[in-house]
Amino acid sequence: MAVSGALWAFFVAVHLFGNLKIFAGAEAFNGYSAWLRVAFYPLLPEESVLWALRVALVVGLVVHVGCAALLWARARRARGPHRARIRGARSVGAWLMPVTGIGVLAFLVIHLLDLTLGTQPIAASTYVHADAYANLVASFQRPWSATFYVAIMVLLSVHLAKGFTTMAADLGVMGRRWRAALVAVGGLLALAVLLGNGAIPILVQLGVIA
Length: 210
What we know:
Blueprint: H1 2-19, H2 26-38, H3 48-79, H4 89-116, H5 132-140, H6 143-170, H7 176-206
Helix pairs in contact: 1-3, 1-6, 1-7, 4-6, 6-7
């Protein structure tokens, strides 16, 4: 659970870095998108790095969701039919992870249909496979798409922040300073994702990015 979560947290951080290139304009953003398809060519075949990343992420996602379901089932059996009701911060934390996780999982499917595959009617009607910048702008010019994306960034940020607190224990990090450092990294990444990714659809709606 922790290792697969760490893999996806790393991907989110790298993906955020790439998304921020949209502030440098269409050429920079499309250049980054094109580079992903030809990274390390001719040393490696075209799109090999991209497909290796996709396979690793899919495996990590399956493991993460599978472990989450397994842990939930084990915890439910361990508490028994007359389990005590958990209250306070522990209750909120236990409720947040599956709820935010399901929301992010649903977003992944919609996001792929929208900006990677261009599947109608999820994607904008003007979708062009080779123009990532135009596709992103066209998608976020639709109010429902922009609102949905911002809402999911809130859920993802909460999931990241909470996930890093449990990751420290799951990986056996016992030192107080190391645990505090992991929690701080998770909080900073969550804030960066919320502000960085969340700003894009808002600025598209305001006409700043067009």
